[in-house]
Amino acid sequence: MTRVVLICSFYAPELGAAVNRVREYSRAFMREPSVDYRVITSFPTYPTGVKPHRYRRKIQTSETGEFGEPVTRLYTTNWSKAFVSKLGNQLMFAFMLGQYCLRFLFLRNTVFIVSSPSFFAIIPVYLLSLVRRCDYVLDVRDPYPVSLFELSGLVKRDSLPGRILLALEARFYRRARRVFTVSESIIDFIMASNPRIAARGIGRERFGVIYNGVSADFIGFGADEAHRREIAARYRGRFVVLFSGTMGKAEDIEAVLEAAAILEHTHPKMLFLFVGDGEKRGMVAAHAARLRNVALVDPVSHRAVAAYIRVANVGLSIRHPSPLEATALPVKIFEYLAMGLPVIYGGGGEAERVIAGARGGIALETTSGAALAAALRTVHARKTTLRVNREYIIRNFSRETQAKKMVAEIVSPHSPPCARDNAAGTRA
């Protein structure tokens, strides 16, 4: 029997795209009789930054997850929106994980799945692979460390820490049995942004894609008519423009708020509704206090998000244009389209092709408040009729189908050998 250990920083009951992704891995692996599956994660503090009482004054806990999977939680500092605090949280998790991984030194037939975010969690698994010669698979949601350089501004690519991180990235990929990303464009970005990867003989065949998507559970949540009616009653008579999810640095919240200011008096029934959390939540709250067409809702469960989507008239995903952001496939896009909600998207890249495939959105050429306001006027006036092809999303981007790719990588007898077997005699 193969022992499979999933390592992730975030896990249920925490909220967010990362949690929903690994949740499907757990569901899929727990259905495999030939797999002994378990999860190692941190204490849940996201997105509130508050550690539940039951985890206080503890270093480690063991519990059972939603699908019966054993879950080990390790002490970490509380999550915070501040970048330095996030970094401290990730480093603490890597440190605790390093100590916990010592118990795997004498266990055979173990495969680790390390899911980002948390670039540093790979370090103890990589070291263990050198000593114990075990396999690991990387599940890359964000192209670290390059995203660290671009979004933090604290570490420069050409600095000594930057060069060390890039060298580590190449070593991690070189040793990995397989590297899965969330989009095709991330693979191109990773290969182009770190020449050391190709220099170490790592070709595109080492990579695969496990898309984010939408689960059958989420679509089922949309059938909760009572919840939908409750939310619809709050916004009766309004044309609801929905932004759900993380209000982070990558999101061009400024453009959305600028569009709201432009349309406040000309379209008084249009309501910009923000549901979620993130670094820019404070900015949204400030605008909600002075603009009559902006409303802010605290983070809600995945079930509640489905109800908000059903109430909305159009969904937004507006990102700052950059080579890094062009690799993104925001989960909210899949959720909007799978529920039949038209999307206005800004940011370019692979996401535009997904929206075009579903025939359910408008892609902005520029992500400005004026351009977004013009697109919203068009949709509001029904000059553009958007009939979303929901089946395209459900058929091609089902989370259940995507998760089976990871299971197949681990349990298939034809899985490709790990890096060290591909290049015997080459240093990892």
Could you characterize what this model shows?
It is a single chain. The chain has 428 residues and is α/β, with parallel strands linked by helices. It has two domains: 2-213 and 398-422, Glycogen Phosphorylase B (Rossmann fold, 3-Layer(aba) Sandwich), CATH 3.40.50.2000; 216-396, Rossmann fold. 42% of the residues lie in helices and 17% in strands. The chain is built from 18 helices and 14 strands. The chain has helices at 17-30, 83-100, 122-132, 146-152, 160-175, 184-193, 195-199, 216-221, 225-234, 253-263, 281-290, 302-311, 331-338, 350-358, 369-380, 390-396, 399-411, 419-422, and strands spanning 2-8, 35-42, 60-64, 70-74, 110-115, 135-140, 178-181, 207-209, 239-244, 270-275, 294-297, 314-318, 343-346, 361-363. The longest helix is centred in the first third of the chain and has 18 residues, at 83-100. 46% of the residues are buried.
Largest sheet: 8 strands, mixed
What would you report as the Rg, rounded to the nearest angstrom? 22 Å
Beta content: 15-25%
* Uncertain parts: 417-428
Class from helix and strand fractions: alpha/beta
Structure summary, number of beta strands? 14
Side by side, the strands of the main sheet go 3-4-2-1-5-6-7-8
Chain-averaged pLDDT: 88
Count up the domains: 2
What is the fold-level CATH name, i.e. the topology of the largest domain? Rossmann fold
CATH architecture of the largest domain: 3-Layer(aba) Sandwich
Terminal Cα span: 27 Å
Shape: globular
CATH superfamily of the largest domain: Glycogen Phosphorylase B
Assign a percent range to the helix content.
Answer: 40-55%
CATH class categorisation of the largest domain: Alpha Beta
Helical segment count: 18
